Amino acid sequence: MTNTQSIDAEKAREFAVKTVEQLRAADFISFWAGGCVRDHHLQVRPQDYDVATNAVPDEIRKLFGKQRTLAIGASFGVITLIGSKEQGNIEIATFREDDSYTDGRRPDKITFSTPAADAQRRDFTINGMFLDPVTMETIDYVGGLDDLNARQIRAIGSPAERFEEDKLRIFRAIRFATTLDFQIEQNTLDAVCRYVAQLHQVSRERILVELVKMLSSEHRQRGVELLYKTGILPHVLPKTNLDGDAVNHLKLLLGKLPLNNTALTLAASYKTLTPGLSAKDVRRTIKSMKTSNEVAENAFWILKHVDQLIEANTQYWPTIQRTLIHPLLEDTLALATALVSTNKTNPAGIQFCEEKLTSAEQDLNPPELLSGTDLIELGMKPGPAFSKVLKEVRDQQLLGKIDSTEQAVDLAKITYQSIEP
Question: Do 268 and 360 belong to one domain?
Fold first, then answer.
């Protein structure tokens, strides 16, 4: 998959235009389709482009060459055209109609069809339009332009049928309403509420992709509110409870936290919605959501240390010092500060941390007086006692009780002897 952060928007657009032109030069019908059309009308630069055509997969591969195409989705009429890192890839899909969706995700059978029929099988009207990138004419069979102007999310045709076909659409309605700051049309919203329980048929990986997009939106507080009101919240954030007060608290909290930080946002969500859940349990839950190990471990570390920072002025200084020099300090302090602000509790701990962080580097994080190599040279045997000796020496250094190598050596010997007589 192409890294969207490396894509050049203008080169991606040029690539998408040339793709349509190449298909047309071979006498095929071809348009831009889906989200890139929606984004064009919203005056948002598309992050990727989809192309729809009457060329079938074999014809698409023959035209562009097998080395430049991937046939992973060929059974559903989709071929991936490989671009450069700056261009990104393009999915080229044959106009089709879908039959039943037994697994609640993919059609059991497809039939190649027409643009008008293809539009009817898509999820929401704002995603069901086509665009001619040469004339810039929009082909709208489903009323997508009207719904864009009305700023609403509306299922194409029967909402129940669309959700029966693909259960993830239940959550995607929430995600689009959040990221676009649109309303959900009433019949579509009613169907979302009716079909909530069927989200269990959707893989955690697919839900996670939509959840991260929602939680990264500047309108994520509204997204949380929609998750709560529709009953979806426990399905996308396992082990959370439907508690209106907790949801309102989380909305306030998210308003004070930076965007695009999945670990921090998940930590804040679980800290607020399930305060009785331990950091270890949250880590286990987040991993079950199929997040990366990095996201799960970062959320765990933040939750393990956030209360420590809130009460830093009353804590053992060496413990706080180690937290203040950790790479995740900024995220943890952001959550601690937001919690103190929204809970209207004593800010003394936060003030203590902020004051300490103004200290010079040699005062906040002075070079360690001894290392493991030093302990070996002193005749100590590597083992569990090592970490205890080094911790004691470091603690006393940070407390200002020792400040020389000689003092550190003496303390190390005494500590080692008390552990390894």
Answer: yes
CA distance 223 to 225: 5
Phi, psi of 154 (to 5 degrees): -135, 130
The answer to whether residues 89 and 141 belong to one domain is yes
| pTM for the structure as a whole | 0.87
What's the rounded Cα separation, in Å, for the pair 23 and 1?
23
Rounded average pLDDT per 10-residue block, the chain, 421 residues: 69 96 97 96 92 95 95 91 94 84 58 92 96 96 97 96 93 96 97 94 93 95 96 94 93 95 97 94 96 97 98 96 96 98 96 96 93 92 90 94 95 90 61
Spatial CA neighbour of 215 closest among 104, 300, 289: 289
Token code pair at residue 336 = 């601690």
Do β-strands 49-53 and 90-94 pair in parallel, antiparallel, or remain unpaired? parallel
Q: 395: domain range?
A: 367-419
Instruction: Spell 211-231 as b/e; 16+ CB within 10 A means b.
Output: bbbbbbbebbbbbbbbbbbbe
User: Backbone dihedral region of 400: left (phi > 0), alpha (psi from -120 to 50 degrees) or beta?
Assistant: left
The total domain count for the chain is: 4
Last-in-domain residue among 147, 180, 209: 147
